[in-house]
Specification:
The protein has seven helices and 14 strands. The protein has about 210 residues and is an alpha/beta fold. α1 runs parallel beside α3. The longest helix is centred in the C-terminal third of the chain and has 12 residues. Bound molecules: zinc ion. Zinc ion (ZN) binds next to loops.
């Protein structure tokens, strides 16, 4: 398997390419920006894009999705509870002072429990509302890997002061849906360095129960 994670755009959102060399297929998670670079890399690797997966509809994660879809024909998948955020893309661009990217409703929905991704390496969708109402994490069980979007960071959690954010809800999502995963599960957050479920359970200051 090919797993490449690199930050894109002004907010340095972690974009991930996950590819199966044997099958010649890939998925891309959170193509927020720098679509030319992402598309070039897929071409270099000789991989056909099968799905574009969006952890949540903040501009830094979803901003380039439609452009990538037009270049590759791959469908965009997102949780339906973030549809209201797509509709305020202009406002989101205003928060950052950048141009409004074109956005379109997803082709399919990331519902809790659904299996998505590559046949050789499926991911289970875990709905983790709180940062936004439609935030999801993608659990690649065969890889012991969780792509966490902006729900869980190394030593921190996603902000909840933007529209659709709810502090109690994000804590509950992490406590009930993510911390039960095995300690050795590698976590790729939406921004910043990777971590593990064990390390966050142990030392994340937002998750202390006492
Ligand atoms: Zn976000």
């Amino acid at each position: 398997m090919i797993i490449e994670t690199f930050p894109v755009g002004p907010l340095q959102c972690n974009c991930t390419i996950l590819g199966d060399e044997q099958a010649g297929e890939a998925i891309v998670i959170d193509p927020g920006d720098e679509i030319g670079r992402i598309h070039r890399r897929l071409t270099e690797l000789g991989l056909k894009l099968k799905q574009i997966l969006i952890t949540h509809a903040h501009i830094d994660h979803v901003g380039g999705a439609l452009k990538l879809k037009r270049l590759t024909g791959a469908p965009i998948l997102m949780n339906e509870s973030d549809l209201p955020l797509l509709k305020i893309m202009e406002m989101q661009a205003g928060w950052l002072g950048i141009a409004t990217p074109e956005a379109a409703p997803p082709d399919d929905v990331l519902t809790d429990g659904l299996n998505v991704g590559l046949e050789s390496c499926p991911a289970q969708v875990i709905h983790t509302p709180g940062h936004t109402q439609g935030s999801v994490c993608l659990h690649f069980v065969p890889l012991n890997l969780l792509v966490a979007g902006d729900t869980l960071f190394a030593g921190s959690i996603g902000r909840t002061d933007l529209p659709g954010g709810d502090y109690g809800q994000i804590i509950n999502s992490i406590q009930t849906r993510l911390l039960p995963l095995p300690d050795e599960t590698k976590v790729l957050p939406g921004h910043g360095p990777a971590t593990t479920i064990g390390a966050e359970r142990e030392s994340n200051p937002f998750l202390r129960t006492t």
